[in-house]
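Section 3.1 - Work completed
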Amino acid sequence: MKKILLPVLVLFVFSCKDKTNAPDVSGIKLKVDVQRFEQDFFAVDSNNTKTGLVQLQTKYPAFLPLFVGNVLGLGPISDSNQLVFEGCKRFLHLNEPVYKRSQELYKNFGDVEKELTQGFKYVKYYFPAYKVPAHIITTVGPMDALAPMTNQEPSPNFMGQDFVAIGLQFYLGKDFFIYNDAGFISNVAPQYRSRRFAKEFIASDIFKLVIDDMYPDSSNRYPLIERFIEKGKRLYLLNQFLPSAEDTLLIGYTGKQINWCRDNERSIYNFFIQQNLLFEIDPALTQNFTTDGPATQGMPEESPGNVGAFLGWQIVKSYMKKHTSVTPERLMLTKNKIIYDESAYKPK
């Protein structure tokens, strides 16, 4: 494949985004209950985990078995399963530094709770029939507990029937010592991903999970341009739930990367046209443009990984400007090829 030749512009500031007028959701009554599971779990006496788990079972009758059995992988909580009690003891000892760091940053969770509550109000505004999680449960789980969404992108969080759980072990700041451990980098999260393990990304990660719950992603067999647009639709919807968030927090690029994309938008689009890739379906030829990475292979090092998400987002924006009566719900149900055909997309 030919290497894309684009002008390199070095920019050191985060780009400000054009803010759209968000709807007034102040009249939507919504209260999400925040439960600090990690505080209760790490308060258990590690020398008497059996008694501690019995007491926790009363407060978290549904969540505790899920956390112990599925997240920690210790099986059902029962007198006959001694692995549970020994495994929890070991987990509490090994992860004490992680828990302490989480409490330094999140002992007061009020600002995050406020941002998430506001976001869920936008969810109810656009999707009144959607059942918003009744509980936000904060946890500190294993350092490798990234769960895949339907598009196989890893998420630090997970959802249940009436809750969304936040894995605080993945929001301790990019300089947290474990994130820079060679084993962690190789086996869990490279640094281009762990730089997003920070407080400001909690809300966008949560609402990506909500969108995945609403609309499971089955676009992996689509032609490349339709996969771009699928990503663009999700970013557009994410922006409706978080209308004040900077684009860098929504798409996960650095400020320099997103500015590079904006400055080279036409060249990026022309590359896919010239290489006859827009309607390619072979994963071997397309996955490079839709997966996370330090940069996109074949493009300058200033490019972001997952460059197709940016292109798809611009196409969806173009479509929505031409179809102002289309609601976010209608957008998500519109076939990606129709969006492309009717977008009249002309990159700058």
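Second construct:
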Amino acid sequence: MYKFSSVQKPVSFHSPNQTFEWGTCDRFPIFAGPDIVEDEGMVLEVAQELKKITTSLNIPWVFKCSFDKANRQSVDSFRGPGMEKALNILARVKSKVGCDLLTDVHETIQVAPVAEVADIIQIPAFLCRQTDLVVEAAKAGKPLHLKKGQFMAPGDMLSIAKKAASVGNEKVLLCDRGTFFGYGRLVNDFLGLVEMRALGYPVILDCTHSTQLPGATGKSSGGRGDLVGVLAKAGIAAGVDGLFLEVHPDPKTALCDGPTSVPLAEMEPMLKHLSAIWNTHKEFGL
């Protein structure tokens, strides 16, 4: 019978704000925050509320927010205020709230300025096979969150992780955000999560993007944000090492990925429910 246990290469995280590990089955850290910088006020509001909630529940939390969305379907889609302005906003929010930051990079020239602000660097799913990008991001020496391409098998991620290891960075997290199931639909393979974790690295489940309906509106992706909680509960029960959740005060007005975002007001009850599942999981040693 499959029994969840520590992975071969747990990833430690140390900052002035917190210390924890992925891959030891101790706690379930989360990446949570808005999809993209819309304006400083919204970003700060979400960060402050998430800090309050996760502190009260003793859940390790890293603020997630993108400075750019380079893989939009339409040239008219919102991409953010620009890298320099967005990174300055994220730096100020980090300072005010006292939190750590995950954000993604799309080109090698973005790695250096992003590494000055971000504590964890993310490689988007569509770009996970871009060798130069993965290697350059790994050289920054920070934990690397590698999203599995929607077109890749779980076992394929070992080669991607080895690209980071080739420059001395073993602080790798593997992330599942769904797999293409024909046109306009993604599904999650929970057996695949186990297989990917068996590669030796902690595994994160992106519950929000997994509910995406690619290209559903013709100019952008739709989604089933109402099902994010279902995937989160299933992921915790299966024993993933962390969750990725995009959050917005009002998803209906979000400028990007609103259909898959969790309403900010729903985060506290959701995390309380997930904590109960996690505690049961640990109690019975599943």
